[in-house]
Design goal:
Blueprint (H helix, E strand, L loop, with lengths): L2 H12 L6 E5 L4 E2 L3 E4 L2 E3 L1 H12 L2 E5 L5 H10 L4 E5 L3 H4 L2 E3 L4 E3 L1 E6 L15 E5 L3 H9 L4 E5 L2 H10 L4 E5 H11 L4 E6 L4 E8 L6 H10 L2 H11 L12 H21 L1 H34 L9 H9 L11 E7 L2 H8 L1 H18 L5 E6 L2 E6 L4 H17 L10 E7 L6 H17 L5 E3 L1
Parallel strand pairs: 1-5, 10-11, 10-12, 18-19
Antiparallel strand pairs: 2-3, 3-4, 6-14, 7-14, 8-14, 9-12, 9-13, 15-17, 15-18, 16-17
């Protein structure tokens, strides 16, 4: 850290009220949506949680700017930073940090080119090259449990994803939220999520040992954060697509807001009678908020298993239901059908993404109307879908593909767009792992696309 940046942090501490405990903290400056430093300002999920802890504890937090996650870790080890707001606990980090309770969880995912097969997990990477950001917990995990995997360490998640897109490495592993944000933000349509990347992130606040006495206060503050707060932060930063320019009037706005808050507190102290008169109305509003929170919780449960655009089941539901225990599906005469909308990128390029989204919704409706009640339809990602047909033989699967093709021919999409799709069919063999059957269906889909599209191929 430069002397000027450290002096800035010290000056901010000395200028703050003596009634609060000031804590210097460092962040990863390039890890959106979790956290980042933009023009010297801390933004992201961890910023919102620190703001809540400022309200719920006697702690105040002063950012020590850094240029990389590695520099932040170095300052934590040197004691120039006393806290970092969102990271995983590891044995190596236990040497110089004490950790709070878990307050945010997120899965890690494998990312590859769309031309690569579905991998599911580290055990299927084989001879492929895996990129991992330096100093991330996943480096220790892979080195411990999968030492034979060829790894390339990158400075950031952004660099790792770029290497996959450019063909320099085969697979990248990183956090699902940050990977999703970067792929959308930079239009990396050649990439796909190819599997799950080890244990999910269990994110905590890390405090240097010299300040571990504040952990009790931090955990108490985290416990005060409501479900509504968690959901609001999740929705604010989930699927972030654009980083806006910094509003340089923000400092003035904050000062104005603080002045209004002070005036409001004085007003409440003087006019308690008026406040009591409105208390009944506030209670009614609180009851309404509780009802709204219950509805949001139900919505969140739905979102964990469904695609927000098409309302079909999502990849997470498919993996949990069909890939976690293949033995339970033995003998059920299962067919897997992989579907890809032909030349969908051309629709987006010509008519725009809004029209493309409407086409995806209409296409999903056609799939739902074409299948039986016990068939499962899921959106795999982008323009790819998967159908799981139970108690159906190969001929029944072919007839379903033909029925969908006929429905598409007679359907009027937005702007009179003509939509066709390609199918890959595979029947689950006796004692065959469903993961292997899925890969065969994926290869059959690739064959259908290579041989002219608007057709089905069987594995």
């Amino acid at each position: 850290m430069s002397p000027s940046a450290f002096a800035f942090a010290e000056a901010a501490i000395s200028a703050t009220s003596k009634t609060t405990t000031m804590i210097r903290y460092c962040v990863d400056p390039d890890w959106l949506p979790y956290e980042a430093i933009i023009d010297g300002r801390h933004i992201g999920i961890s910023s919102d949680y620190l703001a809540l802890l400022t309200d719920y504890t006697d702690l105040s937090f002063v950012l020590v700017p850094t240029s990389s996650w590695r520099q932040s870790l170095a300052l934590l080890q040197q004691g120039q930073c006393e806290l970092t707001p969102i990271l995983n606990q590891t044995p190596k980090r236990d040497e110089y940090l004490s950790f709070s309770d878990v307050f945010f969880k997120s899965p890690n995912v494998l990312v590859s080119l769309k031309t690569q097969p579905f991998l599911q997990g580290f055990e299927h990477i084989g001879q492929r090259t895996l990129a991992i950001p330096k100093d991330y917990r996943l480096v220790e995990y892979v080195q411990t449990f999968y030492p034979d995997i060829k790894t390339v360490l990158t400075m950031t998640e952004r660099e790792g994803l770029a290497k996959v897109a450019n063909g320099d490495v085969d697979v990248f592993v990183g956090s699902m939220f940050s990977v999703n944000a970067y792929i959308q933000q930079h239009g990396l349509s050649s990439l796909k999520i190819a599997g799950w990347g080890g244990p999910e992130d269990e994110l905590r606040i890390g405090v240097v040992h010299a300040k571990k006495d504040i952990l009790e206060q931090i955990n108490a503050g985290l416990a005060k954060i409501t479900h509504a707060d968690h959901i609001a932060i999740y929705k604010k930063w989930h699927n972030i697509t654009v980083v806006e320019d910094i509003d340089y009037s923000l400092v003035l706005q904050i000062l104005a807001l603080l002045s209004l808050c002070i005036f409001f507190l004085l007003y409440r102290t003087i006019d308690v009678t008026k406040y009591n008169r409105h208390l009944s109305e506030h209670n009614k509003a609180l009851q309404q908020l509780q009802l709204e929170l219950e509805r949001k919780n139900n919505d969140l449960d739905f979102l964990t298993q469904h695609d927000p655009l098409t309302k079909l089941y999502n990849r997470h539901y498919f993996n949990q239901t069909f890939l976690t225990d293949a033995r339970q599906h033995d003998g059920n005469n299962i067919c897997l059908i992989m579907i890809d909308i032909d030349l969908f990128k051309a629709i987006n390029d010509r008519y725009g993404h809004a029209t493309g989204d409407r086409v995806l919704v209409q296409f999903a409706d056609i799939l739902q109307l074409s299948v039986r009640d016990d068939d499962v339809v899921a959106r795999w990602g982008g323009e790819e879908f998967v159908i799981v047909c139970q108690h159906v033989d190969i001929q029944g699967a072919k007839e379903l593909c033909q029925r969908i093709t006929q429905e598409l021919q007679g359907f009027s999409f937005d702007n009179n767009i003509k939509v066709t799709c390609s199918f890959g069919i595979a029947v689950l063999g006796e004692h065959e792992a469903i993961q292997h059957c899925f890969e065969r269906a994926d290869m059959a889909l690739l064959q259908a696309k290579k041989t002219g599209r608007n057709r089905y191929c069987c594995a």
